[in-house]
């Protein structure tokens, strides 16, 4: 037998069609495997500082916060296990914590509106034909990022407190408009009083309120208020598709029911839930068409109308100097934006004007650059105009980026407090009007010394943010 001929057992190990296994090839494979092992070992060693730093400075403090959520802890000496007592206190004996969510809801609505300027600016830059001009504008949007965030916040505080905002409003004539809006007879306080108290037989004397009387009167009568109208619109969006959709999304419906019960009681909620399911079913059976689009726009319309009512009637509810004041501070041109409880929320909403975020614009630009030019050419052949391209091409194709910014915006609105801490202090300004959950946690920990209870509030906020992120990922669909 030839010594180079492999034995049957070695042929079976080598497998069919592999031929002979030469010692030189085995040595080559072993050398390559050793080199790859060294490379992977070197790469893993490079990752060790990052992994250790993340575990030590991120995960370990978070786990400690979860642990101390069950303790009475002052941050140094007192460490007493209390079980679920902190959670019972948060849910039953701390109304200030839950009242902070009123401002959060208003800021969420305002931030949803403030997302649009960044989208339109990104679209405008994307449509520039000159690549040099696009590059220049991208650089101009990146330059402000080198300014530290703390300096940016201090600049805005000076803008409010040193009178620069009042000077700009006086020069542009907007101070006179605000003086009219502050009027208890004809301005936003009168509209807020009308929608809040809503005497059903009351007909206001002002012509604008008379024109708004009929539709606004239906809001509290049918929906229990503007928040009820918003919940009904959300229910239409969730229940769009009828009973099958309801069966698939029972968990979200349960969450909606809990929020509805918390906001305005159990009276109208079952009726609105049945309507939200019945409207798509009845529409589809009567017209024999897919009612998804119509019901979706009806839900969006209800949410938009409720958001407008909330922004107009739950922010500026009283005249700045009270109902008995004869002269509004807007008449003098010196309104105290951060020193009056009536103006704190409008000042917070106005912050960041014109609301064009650097990171948001860059994220939207990245999505717009992935749109093929052939899509635009096909749209032009079909006669689609400039505005039609926004709503038929560009917005649908950057919904992934919109969803990312929506998640970041929601998390930031619920958790950030640096702006309010610098503008208003740890107490949230006059009458705690600027108090948000993050600022309340900071106050409890570093001013009141209740670190354990602050950890409890942090765990609750973590669960709320986690639930909202899951809902966005599950129900904010991206269809391309």
Shape: globular
Mean pLDDT: 76
- The percent range for helix content is over 70%
Low-confidence stretches: 9-19, 199-203
Helix count from the secondary structure assignment: 25
Structural class: mainly alpha
Strand content: under 5%
Strand order of the largest sheet: 1-2
Beta-strand segment tally: 2
Describe the overall structure.
The protein contains 25 helices and two strands. The chain has helices spanning 8-14, 23-68, 85-92, 95-114, 116-126, 131-142, 149-161, 164-172, 174-181, 188-197, 207-223, 226-238, 243-248, 250-264, 269-287, 292-313, 329-332, 344-350, 358-368, 373-381, 386-397, 399-415, 418-424, 437-447, 451-475, and strands spanning 71-73, 79-81. The protein is globular and about 100 Å long. The model is unreliable at 9-19 and 199-203 (pLDDT under 50).
Q: TL;DR of this structure?
A:
With 480 residues, the chain is mainly alpha-helical.
Key terms for this structure?
globular; single chain; mainly alpha; 480 residues; two-stranded antiparallel sheet; 25 helices
Q: Helices and strands in order, then pairings?
A:
Elements: H1 8-14, H2 23-68, E1 71-73, E2 79-81, H3 85-92, H4 95-114, H5 116-126, H6 131-142, H7 149-161, H8 164-172, H9 174-181, H10 188-197, H11 207-223, H12 226-238, H13 243-248, H14 250-264, H15 269-287, H16 292-313, H17 329-332, H18 344-350, H19 358-368, H20 373-381, H21 386-397, H22 399-415, H23 418-424, H24 437-447, H25 451-475
Antiparallel strand pairs: 1-2
Helix pairs in contact: 2-25, 4-22, 5-19, 7-23, 10-11, 11-12, 12-14, 12-15, 12-16, 19-22, 22-25, 24-25
């Amino acid at each position: 037998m030839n010594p180079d001929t492999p034995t049957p057992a070695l042929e079976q190990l080598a497998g069919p069609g592999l031929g002979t296994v030469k010692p030189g090839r085995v040595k080559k494979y072993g050398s390559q495997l050793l080199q790859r092992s060294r490379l992977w070992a070197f790469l893993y060693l490079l990752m060790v500082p990052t992994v250790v730093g993340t575990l030590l400075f991120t995960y370990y403090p978070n786990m400690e916060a979860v642990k101390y959520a069950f303790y009475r802890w002052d941050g140094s000496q007192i460490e007493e296990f209390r079980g679920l007592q902190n959670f019972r206190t948060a849910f039953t004996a701390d109304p200030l914590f839950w009242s902070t969510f009123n401002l959060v809801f208003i800021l969420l609505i305002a931030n949803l509106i403030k997302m649009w300027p960044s989208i339109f600016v990104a679209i405008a830059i994307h449509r520039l034909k000159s690549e040099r001009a696009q590059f220049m504008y991208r650089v101009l949007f990146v330059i402000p990022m080198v300014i530290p965030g703390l300096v940016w916040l201090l600049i805005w505080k000076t803008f409010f407190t040193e009178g620069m905002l009042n000077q700009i409003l006086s020069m542009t004539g907007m101070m006179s408009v605000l003086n009219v809006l502050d009027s208890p007879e004809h301005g936003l306080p009168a509209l807020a009083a009308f929608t809040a108290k809503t005497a059903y037989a009351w007909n206001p004397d002002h012509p604008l309120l008379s024109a708004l009387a009929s539709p606004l009167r239906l809001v509290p009568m049918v929906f229990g208020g503007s928040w009820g109208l918003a919940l009904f619109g959300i229910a239409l969006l969730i229940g769009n598709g009828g009973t099958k959709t309801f069966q698939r999304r029972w968990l979200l419906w349960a969450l909606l029911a809990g929020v509805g019960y918390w906001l305005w009681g159990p009276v109208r909620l079952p009726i609105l839930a049945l309507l939200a399911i019945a409207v798509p079913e009845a529409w589809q059976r009567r017209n024999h068409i897919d009612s998804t689009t119509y019901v979706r726009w009806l839900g969006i319309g209800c949410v938009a109308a409720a958001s407008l009512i909330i922004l107009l009637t739950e922010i500026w509810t009283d005249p700045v100097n009270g109902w008995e004041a004869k002269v509004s501070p807007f008449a003098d041109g010196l309104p105290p934006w951060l020193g009056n409880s009536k103006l704190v929320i409008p000042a917070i909403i106005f912050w960041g004007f014109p609301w064009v975020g650097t990171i948001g614009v860059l994220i939207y630009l990245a999505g717009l650059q992935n749109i093929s030019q052939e899509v635009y050419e096909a749209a032009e052949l079909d006669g689609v105009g400039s505005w039609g391209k926004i709503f038929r091409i560009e917005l649908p194709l950057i919904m992934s980026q919109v969803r990312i910014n929506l998640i970041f915006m929601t998390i930031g609105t619920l958790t950030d407090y640096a702006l309010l801490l610098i503008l208003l202090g740890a107490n949230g300004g006059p009458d705690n009007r600027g108090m948000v959950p993050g600022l309340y946690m900071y106050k409890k920990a570093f001013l009141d010394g209740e670190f354990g209870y602050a950890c409890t509030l942090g765990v609750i906020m973590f669960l709320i943010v986690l639930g909202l992120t899951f809902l966005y990922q599950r129900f904010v669909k991206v269809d391309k």
